[in-house]
Amino acid sequence: MDTIGLINFAYVISAVFFVYGIKMLGTADTARRGNRISGIGMLIAVVVTLLDRGMLSYTWIIVGLCVGGFVGGLAAKKVEMTSMPELVALFNGFGGLSSLLVAWAEFEKARGLGWSSYSESMGVSWVFSGGVIYVAMLIGAVTFTGSLYAYGKLSGKVPGAAWIFSGQRAINLLVVVAIVSLGVFFGLSENEDTSNVLFLAGIALSLIFGFMAVMPIGGGDMPVVISLLNSFSGLAASAAGFVIGNNVLIVAGCLVGASGLILTVIMCKAMNRSLSNVLFSGFGSTGQSEGGGDDAEPKAIGVDDAFYVLEAARSVVFVPGYGMAVAQAQHVVKELAELLESNGAEVNFAIHPVAGRMPGHMNVLLAEADVPYEQLQEMEAVNPAMSTVDVAIVIGANDVVNPAALSDESSPIYGMPIIEAHVAKSVFVLKRGQGRGFSGLVNKLFVMENTRMIYGDAKATLSQLVNELKGS
Amino acid sequence: MDLVLLFFIFVLSAFLGLELISKVPSQLHTPLMSGSNAISGITIVGALLATGAEAEGSLAMVLGFTALVLATINVVGGYVVTDRMLQMFKKKEK
Q1: ipTM of this predicted complex?
Q2: Is residue A296 in a domain?
Q3: Do B6 and A19 touch (CB under 8 A)?
Q4: Domain range holding A369?
Q5: Which chain A residue lies closest to B3 (C-alpha atoms)?
Q6: Same domain (yes/no): A111, A203
Q7: Which tens digits make up the pLDDT trace of B68-92?
Q8: What angle (nearest 5°) sits at the alpha carbon of residue A223, between those of residues A240 and A179?
Q9: Together in a domain, A158 and A206
Q10: Distance between CA atoms of B4 and B18, rounded to whole angstroms?
């Protein structure tokens, strides 16, 4: 077999590793092995690519691999678990930008050769090559700026709320029309210089569009956005595979596209909203809801009183939300849970699928704090037994425990499955202040008879409870 | 390169992907996302070709090199961070 045949054969093996890896990532017992297997697939793909006979020089390749490997490895080792959503968004953006640049480099190569000789070398018409180059550029650019903006929102570097202004949709539509028209002219253009101008304009507009698309999406909808951008980064790689005519890129990218899409659908279902509603509605922007004239006041409770209730409790359920991540309270939550258990209570954690800012956010944090896996329960498992629970402790969660989603048809979140903390015998809500949740709604849970608010920093509150329990 | 063949591969991979992971337990959502994110760094192959096979100093090569650095960050960072997360999941199964 010649070198090209050998390389392509190795790509097949690498693709098989990806398929196995991603399959194993979907099951708890095999996930870690799956990740490593897909890593081996990646290594194979990289190594055999270096054998390509077209390679002129390895100097810059080695430099690039070292720099990228060092930066990526360091970031991955150093990151706090609470910052995981930002990091994933950032890596995602890098992947997108990389696909854009690969498409651009290919365009430069084609421009150097001229369309006709380039088409000859690729064996397909320029209209096709130009088309896929443009599409790969477009998806890569949207993934890049979209992820970068999501990163900004998640890390608090830019305001996380939805940003809506009048005419926003019309402008977005115009941008899309412009991008598509440029692409059509680009694909049909015979003149290399005109094409270059069209391509650069296309890059600029696509970058702007990625930014505009994430603009009207608020912080609480981030799990959907991150999953969707994850899917896009795969599609970008797949499109880049069409550009350079490489199967392993197409297969691997497409697998990622599919897995991201599945996660996106799961997240949307967990909020009982359609994808288009999440993307375009500007949900959670200010002034969306006035809350419906509740005159009841939330009743506050001090830590001491809360302690007496907890000490007597036989079963306790924690309901963590984004607030737990912000307060970095996962370790002290675990400590409290252990003390309650040794005090004879049954302790569980109820995890809503969209709690936090990325899919599975709460699971990662609680796993970091060493909470036993069996105690992490999904919404469907917890709800039926909720009425027998003595105390439900809501830590920085809001909309995912709002009973209005079940009962109030006028509520924007009506129909969203929630963790039914309100049916527990008593409910403690740990909350920083009296502000509203992401949706801007007044939470009916907070004013219910069996609910007591514990205001203040969740971590500080929990530490006090831990100390009191230790002292008892 | 046969055009139809490329699309054929694309469509089959899409179905394969959807079948492979149609059911994911929620505690694995984050690792699945960051692990698949690392796989999307496969674009590194295109970056390697552009860096190594284009004339040194040409725009195509510079673009390829930049793509290579970014894709490598994506790949190495993605795999390492996913492994770190899964390690935390692992240790309680004892």
Answers
A1: 0.93
A2: no
A3: no
A4: 303-471
A5: A124
A6: yes
A7: 999 999 999 999 999 998 988 765 5
A8: 40
A9: yes
A10: 21
